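Table S2 (continued). Query chain:
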Amino acid sequence: MSLAHLDYAVVVTSEATSDTKAPMKKKCAILTSFDPYSFKGGIETYTRQLLTVLQANDFTVDIYHTGRLPHTHKMKHAPSPFLHSPFLHSLYQVGQGFYQVDHLYDIVIGHAFFGFGYTPPRIPAVTIFHSTHAQYAEANRMLFSPAWYFEVKYLFGLGAERLSTIGRQCIAVSEAVAQEITTHYGAARVLTLPTGVDRTTFFPRSNKGQLRDQFGIPREAFVGVFLARWGIDKAVDVLEKIMAGTPDVFWLLILGTGEPCPYKDGPRTKVIENIAHDEVARVLSCADFLLHPSRYEGFGLSIAEALACGLPVIATPVGIAPTALRQPPLRSLLLPSYSEGAERVIAAAVEAIGRLQREPELRHACMRASLTVAARTLDLQQWERGFLAALALAGDAPA
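Corresponding output:
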């Protein structure tokens, strides 16, 4: 039986249909939100990476995600009268539908609250927390409406995400997220496992001048890079003030899907939108530092990728930044928290950029330190080993 007959559910099957058991192989289901081959977000990248690891370790994998299909079969589970959010309702249907096929699997993996409808789980289960909506709501509370805050914190966070910790091995992508799911949701089984970066893709390029020519960036410029989607929760209001306060810096904006960016290519800016993931590394190699002023991150993939490319990282203390930048000289680039006020963050960022620009010795020391941090704590093979160990803790994985 497949989930494809359920309202709002689409199935992407990596090797075999749900009815077919491959001999001598374990079966894993992944419950997520969107098709990892059609969307380019961080969770979709993580899912594709996870799929590769599982298949290399003798798992067959079925990926279940939300979508909409013609109503061809009567649903076994009636719609919940309490879930008025269409997104939560669609996820609920995927999770409830999984009860019909869970006996075909050895283990199930969910992202955040995307598998909350499968509660309590009847087979070994893992939930990967890339962030927490409870803390995200608190960090951005003053930026959005009370209705937004209530939905994100109480429905997505304290409701669906908390359910997603029950009876599951939880994986947190940073020490900060591990603390959040323990504090907000009372999770008991938590393993911290930073997301790995493929350092065969993300590494410093030696042909910086040629790359700058290719992307239309002045060869002699001091280049700062911002890598995120354009949105107020990514602190683009703060970014704009920092850009205004650093007139001698050329700014490279690498943007994913988000709100329209008001900047265009000009004497001090270059905007590159929605590029392929493996192309990001080449663009990062054009820069002299990364600025990451976000108000909240669970992990901060752009921080990890920039470190792997040998860039100094100037960042607020969110996601992996407090641990990745905890040792000197990188520690000098860690910005204050927004609890001290946005103006304090802006002033500290402008000052850190100025030091990197004036002091090439500091910049080169930070570049070396960034590569060391990436190799020691953000290596992809290290993440793969850790993830397989987490599956073993969940109750079913290779010995």
